[in-house]
Every structure is written in C-alpha cells, then in structure tokens.
Amino acid sequence: MNSNSNGQKGFTLIEILVAVAILSIILTSLYNLFISQFRTFEAQRDVSITQRDIRASLELLERDIRLAGFGVPRGTNPIALAQNGTFGNAADPDSISINFSRGPVTYLRAGTVTQPGNQIQVNSVTDFVVGDPVNIISKYNNNLIGGYVITAINTGTNILSLNIDPTPQGIDTGDFAVKAFNTVSYSASVNGVTGRRELIRNDGLSQSVIVDGVNNFQLSYILSNGAETSTPGTLSDIRRIRIDLIAATTKAVARSGGQQIPRELVTIVPVKNIRL
C-alpha cells in the first residue's frame, strides 16, 4: 500500500492482482470441493438405486420361481427351460422359463354338466372373466382332464359356461378348475440403443426391463440328489435354483476410476410345486 501527497492511502496494482489471485484460488478450491461432494452424493445415490433395482428384480424372479408348477398338471415341468448361455454374447444369454398359473383356482361342486351351454358349477367364480382359458385337473392324480374357454359366467349360481362339454373326459366333484398356466421367461440381452445389458421378463403377452446395467446373470440348479449344475440334463430333477445377479450404475457420474460401480446379490430359491 502507498500514500499520495494528500495523505490518502490506497492499494497498488500488484497488491490488487495478488488479492484477486488468492481469492480465485480460494473460490476454485471451494468449487472443486462442491463438485466433488456433489459427485460423491450422486454416485452414492446411483449405487443405492442400482442395489434397490437388483433387489426388486430378484424378488420378482423369486416370486415366479416359488409359483413354478402352481396350477400346472402332472407331466408338465414347473421349469420349462434352463439355458446356460455365454456371458458377453447377446445372442446367447443365460435364461430360464417358468410354468405357472396366475389363478384364480376353484373346484367343481358337481360331476355333471348342465345343458345347454356346457355349464359347470364351481365353488367360486371370483376373478374369472369371459374368455379365460381354463384347465380342469383331476383331484386324484393332478392329471389334466381338459382345456376349455369360459363363454359365460353366472355370479349368482357360481356357474361357468364352457366352449366344450368336459363330461366325456370324466370330471368329478372336487376336480380343480384353474386358469390355464402360462410360461414366464427371464433372460439378459444387450440393448441396441444404450449398449447396456438388461434383464428382461417376458410373460408371453408383454416384456419389460426389470433391471438395467447387468454385468452378470448366472443361474445354477440344485438337483434332487444334491448336486449343483448350470446345465441340468433333466428339468424334473431341479429342486432349488441359485441366482447370481450383478448390475452396475448406469450414470456417468457414478463411476470410480472411470468404471461403473457394481453391486451383487445372490439367493437360492426352492421349486415347491412339483407334480411329475
């Protein structure tokens, strides 16, 4: 600082430049600290979202596996397909297909059919709708008696009208009537737009992405003799399924050393409804 002839004091240009430089350094440091903290927060949030998505997708797959075989007649495997794919090959992913009925399920209250209209009386018609495919399954051996389509519903008398008379197939009081089962499949494939691997659920009517950024989707099967394999020779021997799912954060901000941050969950799910 200097003074002029009038006794007034001021800063020299060099002093001002030094002060500005120091202030710039401080502000730059504060900005970098803010950006670092923001990126850390974003990364932690994306990791939490990824882990949540993995857990949710596993819960969905677990639920479907636990339902495997429900409403499925004897002679049809609860597990329809167990394919051991080649990781990194979009055309050859690990996949599994599961047979089960979403219900509803009821039972016949009479072993005879009322004409006209092929009418059967059941315990409940709740949640059935016209057009539903229905299987009638024997109460004695779980064999399929026949497959039919509902043409009319009487909610007052709990009567279902079918497109075909099931009497010739030998129905009996107590036989089960259940909405026909469908096959749900899970597989990992590469999205052609994002380039990321996704876990896809396909129920035969629609398919949906249940988790994005999949690094690994591995399935192994524990058989009736206790052995574990990724390529079961006989689907009916499957008793439990081990699922290993790894997915990584998909946002660029959630990276560590330039790499996406992976999260992994492993679970074993029993196959309960086996009627072979």
Class inferred from helices and paired strands = alpha+beta
Helix-strand pattern, N to C? EEHEEEEEEEEEEEEEEEEE
- Total strand segments: 19
Major beta sheet, strand line-up: 5-10-7-8-9-6
Helix content: 10-25%
Q: Which parts are unreliable, with pLDDT below 50 for 5 consecutive residues or more?
A: none
- Rg (CA only): 32 Å
> What's the domain count?
2
How much strand content do the residues show? 35-45%
Instruction: Give the overall shape, derived from the CA principal axes.
Output: elongated
Amino- and carboxy-terminal Cα gap: 97 Å
Mean pLDDT: 87
Main beta-sheet annotation: 6 strands, antiparallel
Tally of helical runs: 1
Descriptive overview:
The protein has 276 residues and is an alpha+beta fold. The chain has two domains: 41-93 and 183-270, no CATH class; 105-179, Elongation Factor Tu (Ef-tu), domain 3, CATH 2.40.30. 20% of the residues lie in helices and 37% in strands. It is built from one helix and 19 strands. The chain has one helix spanning 13-67; strands at residues 2-3, 9-10, 79-83, 95-100, 105-107, 119-121, 133-137, 144-154, 159-162, 176-179, 182-190, 197-202, 207-212, 214-223, 228-229, 238-248, 255-256, 259-260, 262-270. Strands 5-10-7-8-9-6 form a six-stranded antiparallel beta sheet, with no helix packed on it. A five-stranded antiparallel beta sheet has the order 3-4-11-12-13, with helices on one face. Strand 11 and strand 12 form a beta hairpin.
